Amino acid sequence: MHRRAPALPRTALLTGVGRRRGIGAAIARGLAEDGCDLALSFHGEYDRRVLGEDADVELLAEELRGLGRRVVLLPGDLADPAVPERLVHDAREALGPLGALVMSHCESVDSSILDTTVESFDRHYAVNVRASWLLLRAFAEQVPVGPDSPGGAVIALTSDHTAHNLPYGATKGALDRLVLAGTHELADRGIRTNVINPGPIDTGWMDDEIRAAGAAQTPGGELGAPGTVADLVRFLLSPQGGWIRGQLLLSNGGFATPAV
């Protein structure tokens, strides 16, 4: 039986939305403009520890509410295995059934094969892989089975970093596999899943040297911005993007690591 074209989701849970200049915030703005009510998950300790900034998601929420959207803020450390299911539950209690899950959270600490600690590796795995699986599972469980199901969409952000970013890169590879499996395993619920690799995006972590080097590795000589990631997310969640399923999409401006 041919399932009808997916409708634009009216509710979404976004993870990793701590700072207004981050990718998650740009996605939230785009979906709010498209008429989507939002549950925003964040972990302020990560923003302070890794990025050296305080989360300002409360200001983002005020901005989005000014567009007429319902917005609920859901703090939580995704390294805790109880948090993912709670986030989905609380988002659903506040907004009703969820139509989309966008995972832009991560643990990301630079380290290599010889200096990565077991504690750091385990935390990367817990946040980037285990939490993503538990979020995907909880999201799927609230979507009914059958041809009349409203379905749903799941998008995760990934990376192809490897050298000197070992635990981050390794766990992002695992993330890709588990999210892409969802398109096939959750087909009876009408859930479509995709993964986006946006390449290097400056959300405040780049200095001038890194920015220039990254731009030089793209054919157009410039880096993408958080909004370029949001544009693709908005398309994939739209009816026009509904036929794109089970894909790992490179949306990186042609960025390529030079041969060594």
TrEMBL record:
<dbReference type="GO" id="GO:0016614">
    <property type="term" value="F:oxidoreductase activity, acting on CH-OH group of donors"/>
</dbReference>
<protein>
    <submittedName>
        <fullName>Short-chain dehydrogenase</fullName>
    </submittedName>
</protein>
<comment type="similarity">
    <text>Belongs to the short-chain dehydrogenases/reductases (SDR) family.</text>
</comment>
<keyword id="KW-0560">Oxidoreductase</keyword>
<dbReference type="InterPro" id="IPR002347">
    <property type="entry name" value="SDR_fam"/>
</dbReference>
<dbReference type="InterPro" id="IPR036291">
    <property type="entry name" value="NAD(P)-bd_dom_sf"/>
</dbReference>
<dbReference type="Pfam" id="PF13561">
    <property type="entry name" value="adh_short_C2"/>
</dbReference>
